[in-house]
Amino acid sequence: MGFFGMTLAYIAFTILHFFQFVLALVVCGLYGTDLDRARKAGKYTDGKWVFAEVVGALSALTAILYSVPFILRFAAVPAWSFVIFVLWVALFGLFGNMYIKEDAEGNGDIQRMKNAVWVDLANMLLWFIGTVAGAAYWWVHKDRKSRFTGRAELGRGALHPIVGMEGINDLPLRQSLVKEYKIWSYEREKPQEKGEEGGGPASQEVFG
Fold first, then answer.
1. DSSP of 34-49
2. What CA–CA distances, in Å, run from 26 to 3, 7, 106, 141, 176?
3. Whose CB has fewer CB within 10 Å in the chain, the N or C terminal residue?
């Protein structure tokens, strides 16, 4: 994945997180209307509506956090996205069972909740996509990181991992590997140059 590919991936994730953030706020508004009304009337606050607010708030905060560059490279990101996805599944199932088959009959409040259920479904799908895409992004980055740091596992006299670099399409990674190869080659030849100067140990071995 080259620089251009990484930029496209970041733009795609930014768009995804933007819609996750917006729809999470929509859910907070739809369910928050009833909570605010109950608070003003001094009535009982239903825990199901509180749960909807918590899920919406967590999703909005997570979408903001995911907008930070490079944070998607952590393994915890797809795991937490999956947790958010499960919460949306539970929320959709809970209110879908209550309102999908309900006939609004001109009641604005019931119609609002029926609309909220479909927003819940949209959120559920967005977080499912985010979970899968986040896991794929982390896996690809993990593979690139292991290839980049592979040289540290090789001995001093081992063949440098630049061999076979033609299979790497990431231009910044290729340039970095070339630079490391030059340093590696220089350090490898250094002892030989020192030995040849002034009749050092290397010259003594050659000329007896």
1. HHHHHHHHT----HHH
2. 35, 29, 22, 33, 45
3. C
Q: What is the pTM of this model?
A: 0.66
CB atoms inside a 10 Å sphere around CB 33 = 15
* Model confidence at 204: pLDDT above 50: no
More confident residue, 71 or 155: 71
CA trace torsion 104, 21, 124, 95 (10° rounding): -30
What are phi and psi for residue 53, nearest 5 degrees? -65, -40
Please tell me whether residues 170 and 143 are part of one structural domain.
no
* 169 lies in the same domain as 143: no
What would the pLDDT profile of 29-48 be if each residue is shown by its tens digit?
A: 999 999 999 888 888 888 99
CA distance 186 to 66: 42
Same domain, 102 and 34: yes
Domain match, 162 and 198 both: yes
User: Which range has the worst mean pLDDT, 7-16, 71-80, 163-172?
Assistant: 163-172
E strand or H helix at 183, and its extent? helix 171-196
